[in-house]
Design a protein that fits this description.
236 residues; 11 helices; single chain; mainly alpha
Length: 236
């Protein structure tokens, strides 16, 4: 129960903060020597974080998808294709945790240079570029929210649009994969507690990230992942 609760808490916080949930889970599992059997818990926690997105953005869901449905479709294609056809390639990096430090440091560099440069709307071209860079988040240690928000900011979008597009673009993929893999979920007390913890801390993480983007301190997360990358070099 304690290990599942810890993993759920970490997943909830790091899924949305630009510090890589996959990297944290690999690191924690290596330190605890704990690897849950099957993918049931992973699928359940991803569904939990998708519900957190829905609750946090519930007032904006319909207006957003009405305005950006084309951009969302374009944005999810690159990572979707890479995930289907090159799944085995990316999964190999989860089996060799000594690469984790490198990816954390790459994530740090991405975040360091991510600063708002304009207030332009996200169009089809930008959505495709954001979607392409989202592929790199398939590596453990590189944050999906970090790389998509950073790319949007560098392309001239403001922090509000970058924040919303990053999470609402990814929502269909997370929900879709959760539905497809729902059969692997085992609903017991331990997993139910994990689901609730992940949901609560996911909401907290979204609130924190929203506020940090508004005060233009997003790049401060680069310090954290740099330190984490250095630590990973020495302990893995």
């Amino acid at each position: 129960m304690i290990k599942v609760s810890l993993l759920s808490l970490i997943q909830g916080l790091t899924e949305f903060l630009p510090v890589s949930s996959s990297g944290h889970l690999v690191l924690i599992q290596e330190l605890l020597k704990y690897n849950p059997e099957g993918i049931g818990l992973e699928v359940l926690l991803h569904l939990s974080t998708s519900f957190a997105i829905i609750v946090y953005f519930y007032k904006k869901l319909v207006p957003f998808y009405k305005e950006y449905y084309k951009e969302v479709l374009i944005g999810i294609i690159p990572a979707g294709v890479a995930g289907i056809f090159f799944k085995g390639f990316f999964e190999k990096f989860f089996e060799f945790p000594h690469f984790l430090g490198i990816f954390f440091i790459i994530n740090s560099l991405i975040l360091f240079f991510a600063k708002q440069r304009g207030k332009e709307k996200i169009n089809l071209k930008k959505a495709l570029i954001i979607g392409f860079f989202q592929i790199f988040a398939l590596f453990p240690g590189i944050s999906r929210s970090g790389i998509t928000i950073s790319t949007a900011l560098l392309l001239g979008s403001d922090s509000k649009d970058s924040f919303e597009f990053s999470f609402l673009m990814g929502l269909p993929l997370i929900l879709g994969s959760g539905v497809v893999e729902f059969q692997y979920i085992s609903l017991n007390l331990e997993n139910t507690v994990g689901f609730i913890l992940c949901f609560i801390f996911g909401l907290i993480a979204l609130f924190i990230l929203d506020k940090i983007l508004k005060i233009k301190k997003f790049h401060y997360f680069s310090i954290y992942t740099l330190i984490l990358g250095i630590i990973a070099f020495f302990i893995l």
